[in-house]
């Protein structure tokens, strides 16, 4: 019997190739999206689960309250690990981990190396297999190094390198480090990703200085005894810290001129290591992969689920649409004795065959689009993930669920046909097909929702990437170098002599924050930028009061500063010129304000412009260069910059960035979501139009004789097309009416996360709605035009 059903199913597929193709393609697209999202969710949930002692590992976090705002951060100082391990029962071991990138010299070539410093027992706590070397002793020597497999091959061409040396840059000189082990590459779902590991080198003075409790720059992990209670250990950590560090904390507040209640004593907490990746409340950094967001997984899962549902809806609509073609087959089977159960089994078998073909095609499509999906999701997923037993069970469940959703309703509908009416040619698909129409409305609600939301995200992304940042970032190249013996004056002099370079300025690399006291006695926290006098003029950042630093006034570099408008506002200054700032962290150095700089967005448009102070620093002490090049001489200018850099800094790796590209990179998350929603909307629209096509076929079959009678009585093809298309456009308009408020709510919620955002207006939804209506009309028009053109004699010859 099964073999018979299989033959019948295959013959029906061959007889209706177009319908079979649409069904299989629609289902395969829905299944592909589901498989990709399952891979994504599996990867997110499996982060750091491979460590054998993972359930006993915790990250030490630090919570502090200042000015009524509480902030919890993941970085600590150098003392937390050893002090807690020595004085708190239940802690078996500690690991400190810090990104300490350096340069590596290979022959005459200098390259950047993502080096991480850690403690010698790193491999005792974390499960990272070694391909060569001894895990227990590979990091005991201060000048030992462990390379990953990829880094070993990159440096030596092989992993058989135990005992060989590499030249790493320590301060201003390259020193040899001995390779003591080679580690397997870190799994893609690991929060810790390293190319090379070397041990920390702390002096006794650093280990004994109590102020290092409050110098946060590294990650601290602790390994608890299996019998220890996390809450008890956490409480004992805080008790010991309060006893050991409260005096130092108060002395530091007094030293920096801050009131005792200005900042609370830090509180230490233990964050489970295996939950670290999805804890969005505590950001990761300094060598730890950025945290994920389980909400993103939920959103992607919802999109995939809707796409799969829409694909199943298409299957139902197209199967029912073809029911008229198979009516006599069903009638004959019923007359010769086929039971309802047998007919349902037959149609479910056909559904199973279709879904099986769709599932095979989905696996092929998954492999084809996986690189694109990895780019969109910032992942490194591979089909090898499919070998997971749990995931295979999920795929089997997905397959069976899809088969049931797609095949059950059509099989029930088809088995209800009356054989008497069928065989006497009095059969028609009864009713108004409300269920099918409801399904199509649901399809277009999702399609319109995703299209409109994509359009809103596009407008927002375009707004923030083209908005005026308050400075000119066009044709601006940035270069950083960290040579202690800076040759900044020579480098800028040589560049300035090149005709394709318009101007060169410099500032400190990165973003530095500090505190200082103003004349009212208030202690302020602000961004501190060290610059050359021409930095502001090169970037076309205007002054709103006072003057800029001037080379004709060299004393400006000694005791003069500039502040931005945000600093003046927070300080409460009506006339900032002449005001004094006392830098309590720099031996109470007093600086005088000589100018006010107009606010500009030194960070992304997602952040407010905060207080900022500029100081004139000697060019030889700065390590970030900003080079303005001629607009139409990019290639020649970049070549000249590279040659000059390598001439002046032969022992430093060369790299550059266009500031405009760096600014756009800050919005990469918005861009990724815009692309994901675009593809989701595109797929949803594509599958929805397949469903609309199926419904139009159903209606055309049901109304074929009506159309023939209308044509006999003189109705034109145009009027018939208008009659048939009106029904479908009503469905689309109903869907748009439902989708619009949903889109407005979602768009408003998204835009509320943006500090600077576009206003919501009706214009944002008119264009995508018109696009959906136009495409729906064209989809239906193609089918109805063919039906309207049929000779009425063919439609009525059986009457």
UniProtKB/TrEMBL annotation:
One term of GO molecular function: transmembrane transporter activity
* Record key words, sorted: Cell membrane, Membrane, Transmembrane, Transmembrane helix
Where located? Cell membrane
Q: Where is the ABC3 transporter permease C-terminal domain?
A: 302-419, 679-792
For this protein, the parts annotated as crossing the membrane are 20-41, 298-320, 351-373, 393-417, 438-458, 676-698, 728-748, 760-782
Q: Does the keyword Membrane apply?
A: yes
Query: For the MacB-like periplasmic core domain, which residue ranges apply?
Result: 21-239, 449-639
Task: Give the Pfam families listed for this entry.
Answer: FtsX (PF02687), MacB_PCD (PF12704)
Q: Which InterPro entries match?
A: ABC3_permease_C (IPR003838), MacB_PCD (IPR025857), Macrolide_Exporter_MacB (IPR050250)
This protein's membrane topology, according to the annotation, is: Multi-pass membrane protein
Give the CC-aspect GO terms: plasma membrane
Kindly give the PANTHER family that the UniProt entry links to this protein. Answer: ABC-TYPE MACROLIDE FAMILY EXPORT SYSTEM PERMEASE COMPONENT 2, MEMBRANE COMPONENT OF TRANSPORTER-RELATED
Name of this chain's protein: Putative ABC transport system permease protein
Q: Which organism is it from?
A: Arachidicoccus rhizosphaerae
């Amino acid at each position: 019997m099964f073999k018979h059903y299989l033959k019948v199913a295959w013959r029906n597929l061959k007889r209706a190739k177009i319908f079979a193709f649409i069904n299989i393609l629609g289902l395969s697209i829905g299944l592909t999206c589901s498989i990709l999202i399952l891979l994504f969710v599996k990867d997110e949930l499996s982060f750091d689960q491979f460590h054998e002692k993972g359930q006993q590992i915790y990250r030490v976090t630090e919570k502090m309250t200042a000015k009524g705002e509480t902030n919890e951060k993941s970085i600590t100082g150098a003392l937390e690990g050893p002090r807690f391990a020595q004085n708190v029962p239940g802690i078996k071991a500690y690991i400190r981990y810090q990104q300490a990138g350096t340069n590596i010299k290979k022959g005459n070539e200098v390259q950047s190396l993502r080096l991480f410093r850690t403690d010698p027992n790193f491999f005792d706590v974390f499960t990272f297999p070694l391909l060569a070397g001894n895990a227990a002793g590979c990091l005991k020597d201060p000048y030992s190094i462990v390379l990953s497999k990829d880094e070993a091959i990159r440096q030596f061409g092989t992993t058989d390198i135990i005992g060989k040396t590499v030249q790493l840059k320590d301060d201003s000189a390259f020193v040899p480090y001995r390779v003591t082990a080679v580690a397997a590459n870190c799994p893609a779902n690991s929060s810790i990703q390293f190319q090379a590991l070397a041990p920390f080198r702390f002096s006794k003075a650093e280990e004994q200085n109590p102020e290092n409790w409050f110098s946060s720059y590294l990650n601290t992990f602790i390994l608890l005894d299996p019998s220890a209670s996390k809450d008890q250990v956490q409480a004992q950590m805080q008790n010991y810290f309060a006893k050991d560090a409260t005096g130092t904390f108060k002395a530091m507040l007094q030293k920096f001129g801050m009131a005792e209640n200005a900042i609370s004593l830090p509180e230490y907490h233990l964050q489970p290591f295996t939950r670290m990746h999805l804890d969005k409340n505590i950001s990761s950094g300094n060598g730890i992969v950025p945290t994920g967001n389980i909400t993103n997984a939920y959103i992607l899962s919802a999109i995939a689920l809707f796409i799969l549902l829409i694909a199943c809806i298409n299957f139902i609509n197209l199967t029912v649409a073809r029911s008229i073609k198979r009516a006599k087959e069903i009638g004959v089977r019923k007359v010769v004795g086929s039971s309802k159960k047998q007919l349902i089994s037959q149609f479910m078998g056909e559904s199973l065959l279709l879904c099986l073909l769709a599932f095979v095609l989905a696996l092929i499509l998954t492999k084809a689009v996986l690189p694109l999906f990895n780019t969109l999701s910032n992942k490194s997923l591979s089909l090898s993930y499919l070998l997971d037993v749990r995931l295979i069970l999920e795929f089997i469940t997905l397959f069976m669920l899809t088969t049931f959703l797609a095949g059950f309703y059509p099989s029930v509908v088809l088995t209800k046909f009356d054989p008497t009416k069928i065989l006497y040619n009095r059969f028609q698909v009864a009713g108004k097909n409300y269920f099918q129409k409801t399904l199509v409305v649901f399809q277009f609600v999702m399609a319109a929702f995703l299209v409109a939301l994509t359009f809103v995200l596009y407008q927002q992304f375009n707004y923030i990437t083209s908005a005026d940042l308050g400075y000119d970032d066009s044709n601006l190249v940035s270069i950083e170098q960290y040579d202690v013996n800076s040759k900044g004056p020579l480098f800028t002099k040589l560049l300035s002599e090149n005709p394709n370079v318009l101007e060169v300025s410099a500032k400190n690399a990165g973003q530095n924050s500090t505190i200082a006291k103003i004349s009212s006695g208030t202690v302020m926290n602000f961004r501190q930028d060290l610059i050359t006098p021409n930095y502001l003029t090169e970037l076309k950042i205007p002054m709103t009061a006072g003057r800029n630093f001037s080379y004709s006034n060299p004393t400006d570099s000694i005791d003069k500063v500039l502040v931005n408008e945000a600093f003046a506002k927070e300080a409460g200054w009506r006339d900032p010129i002449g005001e004094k700032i006392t830098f309590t962290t720099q031996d109470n150095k007093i600086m005088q304000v000589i100018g006010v700089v107009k606010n500009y967005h030194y960070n992304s448009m997602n952040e407010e412009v905060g207080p900022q102070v500029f100081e004139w620093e000697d060019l030889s002490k700065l390590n970030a260069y900003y080079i303005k090049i001629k607009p139409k001489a990019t290639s020649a200018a970049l070549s000249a910059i590279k040659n000059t850099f390598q001439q002046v800094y032969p022992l430093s790796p060369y790299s550059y960035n266009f500031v405009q590209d760096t600014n756009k990179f800050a919005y990469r998350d918005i861009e990724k979501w815009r692309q994901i929603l675009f593809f989701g909307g595109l797929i949803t629209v594509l599958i929805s139009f397949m469903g609309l096509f199926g419904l139009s076929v159903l209606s055309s079959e049901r109304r074929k004789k009506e159309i023939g009678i209308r044509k006999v009585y003189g109705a034109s093809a145009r009027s018939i097309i208008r009659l048939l298309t009106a029904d479908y456009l009503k469905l689309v308009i109903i869907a748009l009416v439902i989708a619009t408020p949903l889109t407005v709510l979602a768009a408003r919620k998204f835009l509320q996360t943006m500090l600077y955002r576009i206003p919501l207006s009706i214009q944002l939804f008119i264009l995508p709605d018109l696009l959906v209506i136009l495409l729906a009309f064209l989809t239906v028009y193609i089918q109805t035009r063919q039906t309207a053109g049929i000779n009425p004699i063919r439609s009525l010859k059986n009457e």
